[in-house]
Design a protein that fits this description.
It is a single chain. The chain is mainly alpha-helical. It contains 5 helices and 6 strands, in the order ααααββββββα. The protein has a 3-stranded antiparallel sheet with strand order 1-4-5. It is rod-shaped. It starts with a helix and ends with a helix.
């Protein structure tokens, strides 16, 4: 017979102690905690699924209403922006047309001013040239008598000795220098001898009957004429050939015969 048989109460206490030790061990505790956690997780997942089911049943209609209202708001804002942009575009087009018109007006005005300025420049340049010619012509005309005196001295003075020849050569040198200066500014002397009389360049002082030259031919230049380029500074005073007396009588007789014949007819 064993000791435990004699002490039944001791056996029961031993079993109770062993159970308590087992429960106090970490393995037993962890298994229980994991069981509790798994249970709580399953219950929470069940609640979430039920909530999702409830929300899933209610959400489509609410979302559709919200989407429609949002679209309406977006359409109104977009239409407002489009209207504003159209007004701005129309305003910019108007401004562009105005700028084009102003640019065209400014261009036409610029072209007119350019043409006016060009005409003014040409007119001023022409007037300047004419004024220069007038002043130059007037100045040279005041000097031409000096040239005439030099020419008269050259034809009239006849040096008799070496001293007079020296003086003659001296003032003739001055005359030559003076004439060369006039040539440099465009002055030239006329040479009308042997040419037909032209009232634009010549002034007839005498008429001499002669058979050597045709009628109207310049025989001699009494006072020299001068040109400034193509402008007449002074007309040449000339002697013009006229018909001889015999030719004049013949022409007169022919004229009388023609008159008598005309009367008889």
């Amino acid at each position: 017979m064993s000791e435990t048989d004699n002490y039944p109460d001791l056996e029961k206490e031993t079993d109770i102690v062993n159970n308590e030790e087992f429960l106090s061990t970490p393995e037993a505790t962890n298994e229980d905690d994991s069981t509790v956690l798994e249970t709580d997780f399953e219950s929470a997942q069940t609640v979430d699924e039920s909530n999702q089911d409830i929300m899933g049943k209610d959400s489509p209609e609410g979302e559709t209403e919200n989407t429609d209202s949002d679209n309406n708001v977006i359409d109104e804002v977009t239409q407002t922006q489009i209207t504003s942009l159209e007004k701005e575009i129309a305003s910019l087009k108007t401004q562009l047309e105005t700028q084009k018109t102003q640019t065209k007006d400014f261009k036409d005005q610029f072209l007119r001013l350019t043409a006016d300025f060009e005409n003014f420049r040409r007119r001023t340049s022409k007037e300047k040239e004419e004024l220069e010619q007038i002043i130059k012509k007037k100045t040279i005309n005041e000097l031409l008598p000096v040239v005439d005196n030099f020419e008269r001295a050259r034809t009239q003075i006849k040096p008799a000795n070496d001293g007079e020849m020296t003086i003659h050569k001296s003032y003739q040198g001055v005359y030559k220098t003076f004439v060369d200066s006039l040539k440099k500014i465009g002055v030239s002397a006329m040479r009308p001898e042997g040419e037909l009389f032209d009232p634009n360049y010549h002034e007839a002082m005498l008429r001499e009957p002669t058979k050597e030259y045709p009628e109207g031919t310049v025989i001699e230049q009494l006072v020299r004429g001068y040109l400034l380029n193509d402008i007449v500074l002074r007309h040449a005073m000339v002697k013009v050939a006229a018909p001889s007396e015999e030719e004049s009588e013949t022409e007169f007789m022919d004229t009388d015969e023609n008159i008598s014949e005309a009367k008889q007819s």
